[in-house]
Each structure stands twice: as structure tokens, then as C-alpha cells.
Amino acid sequence: MSQALLREIIDYANRANPYPLYEELRKTPVSHDGDGPYVVSTYYEIHSLLHDPRISSDAKNLKATGDDLLGDQSDEEGTTLPPSFLKLDPPDHDRLRRMTNRPFGPPHAPHRVHDMREELGGLVSGLIDGIRETGQLDRIDLVDQFAYPFPVTVICRLLGIPREDEPRFHVWAETLAASLDPDPDADPTQRGQGSMDARMELGMYLAGLIEERRKNPGDDMLSQLATADGPDGAMTTMEALSTSALLLIAGHETTVNLITNGMLTLLRFPEVLERLRHDPDLAVPIVEELLRYEPPVQLLPQRTTLSDVEVAGVTIPKGASVWLMLASGNRDPKRFEDPDRFDPDRKDIQHLGLGSGIHSCFGAPLARQEAQLALSELARRLENPRLLEDPPQYRQNSVLRGPRHLQIACDGIRP
Amino acid sequence: MTGAGTHDGSLERLKSEGRIVVVGASLAGLRAAETMRDKGFTGSLTMIGDEPYEPYDRPPLSKQVLLGNAVADHTALPRRRAIDADWRLGVPATGLDMAARRVRLGNGDEVEYDRLLIATGVRARPWPNPEEGALKGVFVLRTRDDGEGLQRALAAGPRRVLVIGAGFTGSEIASACRERGLDVTVAERGDAPLVGALGGVIGAVAAEMHRENGVDLRTGVMVTSLEGDPSGRVRAAHLSDGSTVEAEVVVVSLGAQRNTEWLAGSGLGAGPRGIACDAGCRAFDVRGIVTDDIYVAGDVARSPHALFGYQFLSLEHWGNAVAQADTAAHNMLSNSADRRPHLWVPAFWSSQFGVNIKSVGVPPMGTEILITQGSLAERRFAAVYGYQGRLIAAVTFDNCRWLPFYEQQIESTAPFPPPFSTVDRRAEGAKPLPADFPDPSVPTHGPTITLSGYSPADRKMTFTPGR
């Protein structure tokens, strides 16, 4: 069994700065190591595979190989919840995503995200006020005190999760996000059991909530998913469960990293931070460049070929596992000029940070708005902010990459 | 660098102090002008347009504007940069003197050029009987004024609207009428809507869309005459099957005519099918000799395409106008060795009855069609067209995210039928079907691509052996 390549991607030693490894990977656009997955690392190849209907997101199409790191510990098989639309192909994917989109975005709900702006602003102000009130400005953990609670509160409000239940989600979401991380050294049985238990508990909790919303619907998304009756009919209870679990987890573990990676990068480029302080509109291009430069989702490890597919001269056989290295594609010099430079003035920025094709990030409009607001407010209010630890301590996860803590200090907090 | 221009400095002189004239102040003309300035052209630039308006965008006219969701005079095209041009708006070009390098204008003015770009586009084909066409309540839809007039007529709540021709524009108008709750009849000479552009298999899906949305769709019929009331307002139309449709508004949507009449007698290779040019947008003269100072871009051009057997393609596509304008502008300011061909893969979109339709490639070249993803019955699918064993085009209904893949397949001359399986393949995608395009010698309403590479009937010159 030869899986050196995978081990390197997963290796925690590469977490703080995986980019030299990606540069090495790009020398071979499609790498294949023993019986491991086909690892695709260059921009154009990744982009074309994201639009390739011969590529499936449904794990059922994977030719089961006993050695596959992900094969046995698939976190959705054998549990109570069916796969979410993230792990389905059309037509089921399309139907569920469409139904989920009805209460969330255009054309049926064009105002949903926009109308949350004021509430988001209030949450950001409240959290920054909270930091000021602790009086401890010489050691702020930006993750625990800001970047984590903000999007978590937002996703709970959006779904209509009662506030007193929010802390319970922390535990479930973290367990499930961790299960996405391919870790060759973890005991698969133990891991599988842990994520299964978490899914079970989360599922039971959500089932109770959905049942209640069917009787007393509000205008939150959970109510709308539970009572939807559009041209596609209604979601089954199981579908509503797995969809809301997906939104909850995706809403937990990605925006946190976008905001944290963002602040880390801005503190490493203080001149950009200073520009943002005077020009909050700069948050829009900054967040786009961050999605290219430090994307919260580094790779997509769950694609499978339905046919033999030739990519950059390599034939990936039918039934093979394919890993799409989004973060590596984002730094491909064949696509981006001077790709390792953080440049918020970059004009040409069709990054892969939110994916592309039918599975492109569902929550993108919300994530962008959250990150723009969070970063511009932090820039405006923190006086002379600085990093206490660089690089910071990262989470284990190589797929959803981000600092576990981000220790900073500042001289004061502006009103 | 090679080419005479570098040696004698003529290209540099052209770029710094030359005179460039653009006839046609719409999408292609504007984008070309912007590209020229981007490339450092600092000479004089004249933009000639027969409409009094600065360049505006047309796609919204048959969609948002007709629904009353956008105002026609708010569809101005965004400017990518300042072009510092001498605008001659509201005055048409009426003639071209190729030898003296002069464009004649309708007001008697003449404008001299060193390089000329023709981007005069197309206009709506009018109702063939001018008296009937002049009845109040009879519309075509091409310009901003057309859009505004038709919008007002629809807002007044006519009892019934008749749309003549079910190409893309006609179908979009019918869709807008239904969305406004108006009764609408569509009369189409072919067997189905969109049949000229997408063939009979897809046409049948389009027909279902019309009918399910409450359109009174009549196919295989022609409107033979329009009848007015004593006040000169249209009241009814007579059809070739003997029936009569009473309507207060009639929209004539019979495709487009190329604006080339002003070039008659100029010696340029211009006719009803457009202006022939080489792959680098240089116009041909009537003898088939390429000019070096006259360029063509947009709907009025017809140019050979390497990817489609060097067929001369006339494309009425928004994206083609942009791409071709860019290539023409680049080539106008380049030495021969630096010129590049216009190799844009034809692509267009439409939105009707709540369905997003997109296509790439040249569907009318296809003889077979295969439903690769989704299902016709659900009106959510991707289909590919085959021509002599290769994949030549693709169309999607509410499924456009897969289109870049099919475009890549077309660009790499992939085989047809495709030898691979795809997500969402259904039983109906097991075997190719005849694409069922109407006989190309019978003109269809509003094809967005006209194939005009070779037609023996079109031979205009007489070959006289030398004495």
C-alpha cells in the first residue's frame, strides 16, 4: 500500500503552510499514488472536472477498494440520515438544492440574505463590544470570541434554532466536520462511531424541531423546508433532516475559517488592513482575493468517475476516487499572475474558493456578506491590532482548513 | 515583429494619428471602439449610428422591458472605458466610396477614414405588406423604441395579442404576454417553435411549454393578411388554414434582415446575408478579394469558422458581437503577423416561460440529437447534436451549468454519440434521434445562426475565360 501522497496532504506538519506542497503537486497535474485517489492540482483541470458530467458526487459510484481511506468511514452510510444534496447527483441533487434555494435566494427569495444585513451588523457590533467589555485587549482569541460565534449564531437564526440550543450544535458540528477529514492514523471504528452518534443526536433534535415547525411554521428556513410545497412537491422528513443538517454544518465550519484566515492575512499585510479601515467597500475585493489566496475549503475529496476520463494526458479509470485540490488550483501560475501574492486589487479573480458547477457553494452569498461585514468592522474598530502567534495553531482538518485559535492584541477598541 | 508597418512606421502613424470610423453604434461598435482605445489608438474615432441613442442593450427588450420590470431607456450598455469619440447619432450611413475611403451620411456629410469598421447589425424583418404593417397595433421588436411601444401596448391590456413567428424573440414575447396575464396566439409556419434554431425534437418541448402556459399555439400555418378597422387599427389576422384570429396587438417576429443596403454598388461583398469577411474580420470585396482597411463585426458579418468546416456563419448572438468586435479592433491595429482569427464558439441564451435555455455550437448543422442528461418531459435536460460522427452543438433547458463541458467537447471535436456515461442519464438518452431540422432551403423564422458557406444558387459572378 503506497499512499505517501495522501499522507503528505493530510500531514499536520503542512497545515500552517500547505502551499509549497501544492506547488510540488502542480508539477504533475494529475497525481496518482498506488491505489490512492487521483489528485488533481491545476486550475484548468480542476475547473473542467467541476463541470464534467462524467464526475459523480455520489459515493455509491466508487469502486469499493478496501484500502480507500474514505471508503469505510463514509460518514453518512449506515446512519439514520440519507446523504445530503452535497453527496448526490442530479436529478435528486438538483431537486433538493432547488427546493432548499426557494426560501434562501433568487428568484423566489431575493431579499433573504440582503435583509439580514442589519441583523448581521448588530451581531458583529455586539461581539466586538463584548471583547471590549472583557477589558483584556492584550490577548484576544479571535476564533473563540468572534469568528466562531458570529456565523454560528447566523446559521442558527437563519434556520430558526432556539438560541438556548445553540451551544449543543457546537459539539455536533465539530464532530461531524472533523469526520470529513481523511486521517489515516485515526481508528476508523472509533471515529465512525463518534460521527454516527453525533449525526444521530443531531438528527433526532432536528426531527423534533421540524415536527414542531410543521404545526407552527415561522418564517425561518426550517419552517419553510418543513412545509415547502412548490412545483417539486414537499421534502420528505428525512430529506428535510439531512438538508438542514448540511446547512448547519456547512454554515458552522467554513465562514469561521474564512473570517479567521482573513484576519490572519490582513494582520500579515497591515497596509491592506489600514486601507480597509478607511474604505469598508474594499472588503468586497478583499474577500474575493481571500477566497483565492486562503480558501476555507482546501480540497474536494468526494468525487468519482462514471467513465474513463482523460485529464492532462492521464486516464482516470471508471470508478476511481478523485480529489480536486481547489486551494492548489487557486495558486496555479498558469491561471493567475503572481499567484502567491495577496493582492486585493487583482482584477482577474475567477477563483475556485467556492467551487464551481452544480455543487458550487450554496451559502456563498451569505458567507460573502458575513466575511465582508466582519472584516471591515474589525478593521475599523480594533486599534493597532497585531498577531501574538504566527503561524497560529491550526485545526487538524486538511479539508476545512483554518486556525483553531488566533491570538491577537490591540491597543483599544473604537466605538 | 514582422510586416511592412514596422519598417515604414505606417502602423505607428495609424495608431497615433489615424482616422478610424465605426459605422454602427451598438454593442459591437462600442466594444470595438473600447478595445481600440485600450490598445493605444489615440487618433480620431467617429461613431456613426442611425438611432438617436447611445449604445444600448437589446436582450432586456424582449424580457424585462416587456414585463414592465425595466424601462427601455434604462438599458444603456455599461461603458468599460471612455472612448473619446465623435458621435454622429441619429444619422444613417448611406454610402461607401472604397477608393476615396469615405463614408457618406444621410445628412450629406462625408467622413474620411484610414480604417473602417462596419457593425451595422440587423433590423427586424417587417411585415411584407407595408399597408398592413402600418396599421396601429402592429409591432416589430428590435429597437429601444420598439420595446417601449410594445410595452405600452401590452400594459394597456389588449384583449388578445397575436405573435407571428415562434423563434426566440417571438417565444419570449409570448412568454411575457402570458406572464402579464394576456391572451396570446402564436402563429408559426414551421411545425414547432424554435424549430429552425434547435430542430424538431426540442421544438416539440417548446411547443409543450407554450401550450402548458396557456398560449394558443398554431403551427404549420402562415398569416396571410392583417385586417384593420376603419380607424386604421389592426383588428384581425387571416391564416392560411382559413381561420381568423381577432387581436388588438400583432407582433411581427419573422427574424431579421441585415443592414447592408447602404453598401449597394460600393464594391464591397455585401448582400442580404451580410458582409463576407475572412476569419480575421477583414471584409471581402465583390470579387472575393480581401480588403485591408475595412473590417466587419457583429450580426452583419458572416465569416468562415475553422471549427465548423469553414462554414460561413452569420450569428445573431450577443457574445459573438462582443468577441468579434474585440478581434476586429485588435486586427485593425496590428501587423499581418500579429492578427488573430475570430474563433468564438457560437453560444446564446433565452429565457421563456420560466425556463432558461442555452446553447453552444451550431445546432442546425446537426443531423442527430441525443439527450445526455435529464429528461425532455421534465423540461430539464442537456442534449448534444451530432454531425458526421462528431459532436457539433449542445443545448440545455434549466441545466446550463454543464454547458462548459459540452463546449469543451465541441472544441476538441469529440465523437458523436458520446462514448461515456454521465450523471442523470435516463433511458431516453440511450439512443440518438434524428434532430429533425426543417429543410434548410425553406427559410425559418429567426434562426440565430445562418449557414451560408456554399449555395450553387447564390453564384453571382459569371466566369468568362480569358481571350
From TrEMBL, chain A:
It comes from the Bacteria. Pfam families: p450 (PF00067). Residues 69-78 have a biased composition (Acidic residues). CDD domains: CYP164-like. GO terms for molecular function: heme binding; iron ion binding; monooxygenase activity; oxidoreductase activity, acting on paired donors, with incorporation or reduction of molecular oxygen. InterPro entries: Cyt_P450 (IPR001128), Cyt_P450_B (IPR002397), Cyt_P450_sf (IPR036396). Keywords: Heme, Iron, Metal-binding, Monooxygenase, Oxidoreductase. Residues 66-92 are annotated as: Disordered. PANTHER family: CYTOCHROME P450 YJIB-RELATED, P450, PUTATIVE (EUROFUNG)-RELATED. Belongs to the cytochrome P450 family. This is Cytochrome P450. It comes from Streptomyces venezuelae.
TrEMBL record, chain B:
InterPro entries: FAD-oxidoreductase/Apoptosis (IPR050446), FAD/NAD-bd_sf (IPR036188), FAD/NAD-binding_dom (IPR023753), FAD/NAD-linked_Rdtase_dimer_sf (IPR016156), Reductase_C (IPR028202). Residues 428-467 are annotated as: Disordered. Keywords: FAD, Flavoprotein, Oxidoreductase. Signal peptide: none annotated. It comes from the Bacteria. Residues 19-325 form the FAD/NAD(P)-binding domain. One of its GO terms (molecular function) is oxidoreductase activity, acting on NAD(P)H. The keyword Oxidoreductase applies. Residues 348-417 form the Reductase C-terminal domain. GO terms for cellular component: cytoplasm. Its cofactor is FAD. PANTHER family: APOPTOSIS-INDUCING FACTOR 1 (PTHR43557), RIESKE DOMAIN-CONTAINING PROTEIN-RELATED (PTHR43557:SF2). This is FAD-dependent oxidoreductase. It comes from Streptomyces venezuelae.
